[in-house]
Structures are given as C-alpha cells and as structure tokens.
Amino acid sequence: MGLDKYIEMLKTKGLKVTQHRLEIMKYLDNNRTHPTLDQVYLYMKEKFPSISKMTVYNVIDSLISSRIINSMRFVNSTELHVDFDNKTHFHFVCGKCGEIYDLDSDLDLQELLKKEGHEAEDYNVNIYGTCGKCAKK
Ligand SMILES: [Zn+2]
Ligand SMILES: [Zn+2]
After folding, report:
1. Fewer CB within 10 A of the terminal residue: the chain, N end or C end?
2. Could you tell me the distance, in angstroms and rounded to a whole number, from the CA of residue 136 to the centre of ligand 1?
3. Residue 28 Cα, ligand 1 centroid: separation in angstroms?
4. Considering the entire predicted model, what is its pTM?
C-alpha cells in the first residue's frame, strides 16, 4: 500500500512501527504545506475519532526527535509547524496568504560557514514577503 518506505524509515531509526506513526508520516508526505500540530491533530481525529491531542503530539514528538520529520517556527506565529522534508531547505513565508513554500537553492550555506570556521549542525532559513500568487493580484 505504499507504506513500505515509512516502515523502513521507522525501522532504520529504531522506532516501533505503529499505525499512528505511519498515518502521520503519510499525511505529512502527501501534504507539503507545513501544517501546525493542530492541523495534524484534526486530520488524525477524522481517522481515529477517539485519539487525544496528547497522543498526536507525542507521536509527532517522537518523529521529530528521531529526525524523521522536521519542525520549525515562523516569526508570524508561535505555533510549531512540521515538515516531512527533513533535508535542509529554505522556506518562503507569504505574509498575505500565510502559505509556506519550499525553496530549492543551490546556495550552500555549509560551505560559507566552513569558510568562517563555524561548524553548523543544522540551519533553517526562512524568508518572509509576498508570494508570487499574491503579488500578481
Ligand atoms: Zn501569498
Ligand atoms: Zn519545507
């Protein structure tokens, strides 16, 4: 059913394969909109009506701490957003529609940091402005 890759990822990280974990991973993989924890909870609630917010948060937490998924905060909200793409990439946040876009960039910040002698473990680059769709209006 196409769940194999998620099962494989969980096993690689030494996490138990559970239905909740698989469901959340599949949801995030198919929805690259950087949803908030609440949005993930609402989705899960439809599938598993008796699931608690705490359970969903704990599942997400385990996926974040094992680095299966990425999490980030943006300046315009206090909420934690989650992203299935855990490779380093840039985000463009539109101040008008609130949409969060993934940006591919050839810019290698690691190289830049290395030149300065800094050792980066991780970085997040968020760019704020007006997206192409909103700018056209
Ligand atoms: Zn926009
Ligand atoms: Zn992203």
Report:
1. N
2. 9
3. 21
4. 0.85
